[in-house]
Amino acid sequence: MGELTSAEVRQSFLDFFASRDHTVVPSASLVPHDDPTLLFSNAGMNQFKDVFLGLGSRPYTRAVDTQKCMRVSGKHNDLEDVGRDSTHHTFFEMLGNWSFGDYYKKEAIAWSWELLTEVYGLSEERLWATVFRDELGALETDEEAAGYWRSETGIDPAHILYFGRKDNFWEMADTGPCGPCSEISYDRGPETCECAGDPDHVCQVNGDCGRFVELWNLVFIQYDKDADGNLHPLPAKHVDTGMGFERLVSILQGVNSNYRTDLFMPIIRRVQEMMGHTDEDVEENITAYRVIADHGRAIAFLIGDGVLPGNEGRNYVLRMILRRAARFGRQLGFDRPFLAEVAQVVIETMGPQFPELEARRQFILSTVTQEEERFLHTLDLGLSRLDEVLTEYEAESREVVPGDAAFRLYDTFGLPLEITRDVAQERGLNVDEDGYQAALEEQRERARGAEPSQARDEETLRRYMEILARLQERDLLGADGVGHDPYSVTELETTVVALLRDGELVKSATGGDQVEVVLPVTCFYVESGGQVSDTGFIAAYPPGEDEPIWEIEVQEARQPIPGLIVHVGVVKQGRARTGDAVWAVVNYERRMDIARNHTATHLLHSELRYVLGEHVQQAGSLVTPGRLRFDFTHPAMLTEDELALVTRSVNDAVLANYPVQVVQERYRQAVSEGVIALFGEKYGDDVRVVRVGLPGEPFSQELCGGTHLDETGEIGLFHIISEEGVGAGLRRIEAVTGRVAVDLVERQLSVLQRTAAYLNVASDEVDRKALSLLGELQSARKEIAGLQEKLARREFEAMLDHVQSVAGVSLLSARVTAPSMDMLREMTDWVRDRLGSGVVVLGTVLAGRPALVAAVTPDLVERGLDAGRLVRGLADVVGGGGGGKPTLAQAGGRDPNRLDDALRQAPRMLEDMMAS
Ligand code: ATP
Ligand code: MG
Fold it and tell me: CB under 6 Å to ligand 1: residues?
């Protein structure tokens, strides 16, 4: 077989197992939406975790895939190796085949051998296998696997080696599924040993001289480890394998580095081209080239999966990787953004296998460039500051850069720790990373402390704490249970355990008093997770009667300190007393309005992800009785089609009347079932899960503490009222449901109907009618303007008969009909043109007021005439004022009846002016 392209290598892996009854499944997203404990997918098994835990199942028992992986955080962090060796990447693909309680060691081993030697044609002498032998002697040696290596493959028995727990025993966590594994390594040949000069060095599997490459890990999951460390055999045994795709391709393409494969070379070539480097230049700068190629892939894939650059969690990782690549670019000599070019190559080469890259091309490219530009602004400043810092420490012969210095570089210049570390290491210094983390934490604390909050007032807090302590001492809280979920009810019979007025405990309170009421337990929802608090009332009734003895209207329930909920309200009637038996009643209609908006928010969230893509993540939410507001990550304004589709999908889910289930669950179970949790939020061991959809096939599942409907049909109607941008990559949708949506539609329909009646057309013709009327109006206006001008012209012609001669100067003084001052001025132009030399005075009435314009030709201005003076004299007559230039001036007045008078006086005034 000739040399395979990487695409062919991937395809033959999938085909090989597909033809052995494996279902080909797509790679899961790099962002593990179902496991907030994991920053990024880092192995093929992530998406099948629930199956191994016995919590979920799949419709197949054999699967094959290639999984996008990132190893830059947590347990697997290969960042420091990337670029320095040729086998570790931040982003890579892991090929895997899976058996869920189906085939086991025999087939897994036999097929791996068949694939490598027969399909890929690797030479048998170069392959090595390792199996498990416990160095502590506590666990069984995996002779089963060793036996199959001998019986099912043609491997040289001397190439079967035994290794201990670190290399050959696999555990998902401290407890849970685990088992021995068998690793396949490839011998690149003695000439590739990097420690050839070292007399003590022995080349071996799991050594570190680069000669033996760990290629494929076959994990056999056969035990369940309990909290005491005891292993129990699993009823169903599983196979989980992972092969490094880039390593496989490098072997099959006969190159000694992953970077020389067709997965990386196109990127390296493109950068080389942009830099105008020779091959020698590339070799000289190989680390920078490798880092750029590696990080470029990671950047494109991360953004493709919806991650945006930022300061926390996975957003930080993206920012750090991108900036690190930019810094290496700067080192090569780039002085402008170039990473979008790199991402472009990644999209072109990987797009066919990973359509999300193609689909989000524009988003990826613009996000890369934006972040790169932002960074380049401060990069040089940051680097020169870092240089100063390092020079200073070198001068003092210190070896470690303190953490807070590194932190200030990030805080001020946006230089991530990893870059500071890179540069420091290039000069032989280290960075105190714990100190960096401490400085970062300290700043976060400060930021939190600076948040304004009503309850922060220390004095008030202390008082609440005392009250809580007193109530707890007397065992008054949590007394009457209301079952599992207090929010499943809206009224409850209980007692008042404390009353507060002005922050002080009081025995009783009367009409008009503003109070806080403490109950042992409450059905009032306390504002959280964006859902506003309930309102309602608390009242005491005489036995058997409907008229309360006293009543407090509750405006808000809040939790000033953990463990203490107060109902804030006003005493409406009677004297409220501590110790009284009461009914606490939530405003039911309002609660339902809120629940409609909250359940609709979950539907909206899931439909947005469905319509726009998995990169959509909740960034904020507000749920009130009147409307819902939902902020989410998305790079562009939603099109009319997208909005219509989202609205329709949500309403379809409403009409389908899906059940909404609220259950308490163990956190681990919830995430393994794919529940959406907000990254960065902390959740307890027990969580409340809200599921929407048919039992067993929910399409929306979120960790949520809010109040919800029982069925989606209760939403009634969902309607989006606005969509807008609220920051880089963030959109906001506001929507209404239920009564408010119905009201809105009713109101708008009746406006439409009235309009249709005025226009005398059917409702669905209103828009067309309006358009055609606008058209008619426009042409009518044009026509009117034309007619007016014609009219004015005609008047003007007639006027010319009235030109008189005053002391040898031609004067026209006349009243005209003109629609505006502009027209009036224009008419004086016409006259001046016609007279050649002369004086014009025109008057008209505009909006009930007299208006006058006077114009004098330049030759007469030279002879001392002045339009301004003339018009002011005339303005006197009509009771106003005016002014302008000697050639053209205008005036307004108050009395339209004096206009003719004024015009009649023009000849005399002119005469006076000539005489003076
Ligand atoms: P190594 O010891 O080489 O870091 P590992 O033991 O961490 O590998 P596994 O967790 O068993 O690797 O992952 C399965 C396979 O994925 C490995 O055999 C290897 O081929 C590949 N792999 C692991 N980490 C990386 C990486 N950072 N970049 C590229 N391929 C990797
Ligand atoms: Mg590793």
Answer: 43, 71, 78, 88-89, 92, 94, 214-217, 242-244, 246-247
DSSP secondary structure letters along 455-508 = GG-HHHHHHHHHHHHHHHHTT-TT-S---S-GGG-SEEEEE--EEEETTEEESE
Q: Give the whole-angstrom CA distance, residue 327 versus residue 341.
A: 16
- Distance, in Å, from the CA atom of 704 to the CA atom of 717, rounded to the nearest integer, reads 22
76 C-alpha to ligand 2 centroid (Å): 6
C-alpha span between 317 and 679 (Å, rounded): 14
Q: Which ligand 1 atom sits closest to the C-alpha of 213? A: 3
Residue minimizing CA distance to atom 3 of ligand 1? 214
Q: Is 315 helix (H, G, I), strand (E, B) or coil?
A: helix
State the DSSP string of 875-913: HHHHT-EEEE-SSEEEEE-S-GGGHHHHHHHHHHHHHHH
447-490 pLDDT per residue, tens: 655 444 433 456 677 778 888 888 887 777 774 444 446 677 89
Helix (H, G, I), strand (E, B) or coil at 208: coil
Rounded to the nearest angstrom, the distance between the alpha carbon of 243 and the centre of ligand 1 is 8
Nearest to 44 by CA among 25, 16, 61, 18: 25
The distance from CA 358 to its chain's CA centroid, rounded to whole angstroms, is 20
Whether residue 622 has pLDDT greater than 80: yes
By the 8 A CB rule, do 593 and 736 touch?
no
Between strands 127-132 and 176-187, the pairing is antiparallel
Of how many residues is the chain composed?
916
Q: Side chain identity at 229, as an amino acid letter? A: G
Which residue do the tokens 């990987």 mark?
350
Please tell me whether residue 249 adopts helix, strand or coil conformation: helix
CB 841 within 8 Å of CB 906 = yes
pLDDT in tens, 322-371: 999 999 999 999 989 999 999 999 999 999 999 889 888 888 998 899 89
For every residue of 175-192, DSSP letters joined together read SEEEEEEEEEEEE--GGG
- Closest by CA position to 880, among listed 893, 891, 871, 868: 893
Both tokens assigned to 321? 């990787």
Q: What confidence score (pLDDT) does residue 486 get?
A: 65
- Residue 800 is classified by DSSP as G
CA 499 – CA 298 distance, rounded (Å): 59
Minimal-distance CA residue to ligand 1 atom 24: 88
Predicted pLDDT at 618: 86
Contacts of 122 (CB under 8 A, 6+ apart): 116, 186, 251, 252
Distance of alpha carbon 709 from alpha carbon 598, whole angstroms = 8
Average pLDDT over residues 862-889: 91
- Alpha carbon distance 863, 823 (integer Å): 28
Cα–Cα distance between 597 and 650 in angstroms, integer? 12
The CA-atom distances, in angstroms, between 70 and each of 34, 42, 75, 303, 363 are 16, 5, 11, 13, 20
d(CA 315, CA 308): 6
What's the 75 CA to ligand 2 centre distance in angstroms? Answer: 9
Closest atom, ligand 1, to C-alpha of 248: 20
- Reduced to 3 states (helix: H, G, I; strand: E, B; else coil), residue 335 is coil
Report which protein residue has its CA nearest ligand 1's atom 17. 244
- What's the CA gap between 449 and 456, in Å, rounded? 9
**73 CB-near residues (< 8 Å, 6+ apart):** 39, 40, 314, 317
Q: How far is CA 478 from the centre of its chain?
A: 39
